[in-house]
Amino acid sequence: MRQLIIGFRRLAMAGTGVLVLPCQHGSRLASRTIASSAAAYIKSSTTCSFTQTASLAQGVKMLDQRKTFTGDFFFRQLFDEQSHTYSYLLADITTKEAILIDPVLEQAKRDAQLIKELGFTLKYALNTHMHADHITGTGFLKQLLPGTVSVISQTSGAKADKYLVDNETVKFGRHELRAMSTPGHTNGCMTFVVEEQGIAFTGDTLLIRGCGRTDFQEGDSRNLYRSVHERIFTLPENFRLFPAHDYKGNMETTVAEEKRYNPRLTKDVEAFVELMNNLNLPYPKMIDKAVPANRECGLYDIPKEA
């Protein structure tokens, strides 16, 4: 019996389907029959274990350690409840130079006050694209914080002090942001990447478990799919992604998460195009007001209470 137990253990470790045990009567047929039954059970259990292990390994990879912000890098995520827009304040703590991504007009005074309180100088106010759901705060911030330079993509169709082309960099202190062209939601959409900190700001191109709509403002589903898969999804998988909007209370995601769980962009391109063509979304409430204003850097219609 002891030899039989030892044999089964060896069988499980070796993965073989045949076990031959010494037998005083020279009968090997019984041994083979027992071994075949045991091997069938062991193989089934082993396969299940391999599947679970592979799934676990994927999960571990998805949760690869994020880069830790360097000690001289400042990051603050800000929110506008009305438009569900995220703005992002980044700065070099040593030089005090700061940039602000996707500011909202109604929050310009709040943002300017925060920048003053922190002792920063706002060097650039950038937009990831020409928004249709809110008026940008860049123009008003130029009045509140003189010397601020407004920035947007060269292909956006909007006015600004500085225009960016694909892979152009913007510097604040010793830090650097790279502007990556990711059209599809609009022609001028850009994703801003800060390589050293392992972060990217995706605008409306890629949202958390979603993406920007493609049924207005030069929207093109195929272009958006290509932008995400060829530009954003090729960033390191542990890069943290920060969108311009979220409507469910999520604040950030990662490349690995969206590659695995985004219900739209895990589809093949044809299925994605079909889905986007049949969303039947309502006409954007702010588009007729926001787009003309944003063409003028947000100076078109600043409300008195702003």
From TrEMBL:
SUPFAM superfamilies tied to this protein: Metallo-hydrolase/oxidoreductase
Tell me the ranges covered by the Metallo-beta-lactamase domain, including all copies. 84-245
Q: Name one GO biological process term.
A: RNA 3'-end processing
* Chief place of localization: mitochondrion
Cell compartment(s), UniProt: Mitochondrion
Query: What Gene3D superfamilies does the annotation carry?
Result: Ribonuclease Z/Hydroxyacylglutathione hydrolase-like
Q: What SMART domains does the annotation carry?
A: Lactamase_B (SM00849)
- What cofactor does this chain's UniProt record say it requires? Fe(2+)
Q: Which Pfam families match?
A: Lactamase_B
Determine if Cell division is one of this entry's keywords.
no
* Complex formation: Homodimer. Monomer. Interacts with TST. May interact with RELA.
Full protein name: Persulfide dioxygenase ETHE1, mitochondrial
Query: What is the organism of origin for this protein?
Result: Anopheles epiroticus
Q: What is the lineage of its organism?
A: Eukaryota, Metazoa, Ecdysozoa, Arthropoda, Hexapoda
